[in-house]
Amino acid sequence: MYKAVISGMGMYVPEKVLTNHDLEKMVETNDEWITTRTGIKERRIASPEQATSDLAANAARQAMAKAGVKPEEIDMVIVATITPDYIFPATAALVQHKLGIPHAGTVDIEAACSGFLYALSMASAYVSSGMYKNVLVIGAETLSRIVDWTDRTTCILFGDGAGAAVVSRTEMTESSGFIGFSLGGDGSYADLLWIPAGGSKQPASHETISNRLHYMKMNGNATFKVAVRTMAEALESILKDHHIDSHEVKLIVPHQANLRIISAIAERLGVGEERVMVNLQKYGNTSSATIPMALCEAIEEGRVKKGDLVAMVAFGGGFTWGAALLRL
Ligand code: UT7
Question: pTM value?
Fold first, then answer.
């Protein structure tokens, strides 16, 4: 058995910025409503020629450079996304090719906004079991392609971006590494946050297109309540399982969906805002990319360093949720 550590992180966001004021010209909304209800000020939008694999590859290049890991040293590529380039092949295969990674396994996983934590747990299991030495884990999204730009209840929330981590093998004696994961899901909530058509249940037809069923739909109020409860419970249970007090955690890195959700979780755990990473004002909700982008920025800004205890927590469509404890 080995320990699994994050040996390098990277992130990428497209250049184009879409501000709340820009959205005022597109739908019946205003900067004040968006800011007070969500905390979001602006988000990034991919250029027409950029697909999810392009964003993913850019973030991954940076993560591999930081880790000092060459393409031929990557054993597996896992991409978490709800906006793959195609239904198949997997975006991970396209990323592998773009990065010149020879012969690695490639797979996409889909757990919506919790996808990156699910992917990290798989990478950690591969590495700690001794099966692989280096697994490239990416959360990448071009949500601008599945957002209904006529629906003010959702289009103000989402953005495009990618974050990546190289998960590498280290010895059990090393203090750095993943401590544990706690993952959950409940499919009875499937139709509260989803894209109704385009899969095997409702394949694309003239009718599904004219009914706008290929866009993301969300019951925001119901989602909000379950998000606060399950994220807080996932964090509380993982801390309890590992006999760790919340005050020992240097930084909580939560899924960036809504500042009010993040504040409610921090309050419930009794953690001050100086120990909670927030960057959604700049990027909005980028689904599976929020956590790797937030952790990457936290490291770059010096908010956490080697030896610090980090707790990540996610929530998304499915519903799915999860928490992870990591000593950097
Ligand atoms: O990442 C996956 C997980 N996603 C989440 O966790 C998101 C969870 N949900 C949320 O973040 C919030 O529910 C929203 C931000 C989506 C909505 O905030 P809310 O405080 O729950 O607002 P609401 O849906 O209760 O709407 C309040 C009012 C409504 O008007 P009436 O019925 O009170 O007259 C809406 O029609 O605000 C109206 N409204 C807007 N007004 C201006 C909804 N969207 C907008 C808008 N601009 N963009």
Answer: 0.98
272 closest CA partner among 263, 280, 281: 263
pLDDT for position 103: 84
Give the N- to C-terminal CA distance of the chain in Å, as an integer: 19
Question: Which residues are 43's β-sheet partners?
Answer: 18
177, two tokens? 């590494």
Of 273, 306, 310, the closest CA to residue 292 belongs to 310
Closest ligand 1 atom to 156 CA: 48
pLDDT in tens, 230-250: 999 999 999 999 999 999 999
Instruction: Say yes or no: 190 and 312 in one domain.
Output: yes
User: Which one of 143, 170, 197 terminates a domain?
Assistant: 170
Q: Among 306, 307, 308, 312, which Cα is nearest to 325's?
A: 312
pLDDT in tens, 107-131: 999 999 999 999 999 999 999 999 9
- Specify whether 225 is located in the same domain as 290: yes
Contacts with 11 (C-beta within 8 Å, 6 or more apart), sequence order: 59, 62, 161, 162, 163, 164, 289, 292, 293, 296, 297
Amino acid identity, position 204: A
Shared domain check, 264 and 212? yes
**153 Cα to the center of ligand 1, angstroms:** 6
**76 CA distance to ligand 1 middle (Å):** 39
Looking at every residue in the chain, the average pLDDT score rounds to 98
Ligand 1 pocket residues where CB is under 6 Å: 29, 33, 37-38, 113, 152-153, 156, 220-221, 223-224, 227, 257-258, 261, 285, 315-316
Pocket test for ligand 1, best of 21, 37, 319 (most atoms within 8 A of CB): 37
Catalytic residue set: 113, 255, 285
Residues 9 and 144 in one domain: yes
Residue 158, classed as helix, strand or coil, is strand
The tokens describing 220, both together, are: 């925001």
Q: What's the total number of domains in the chain?
A: 2
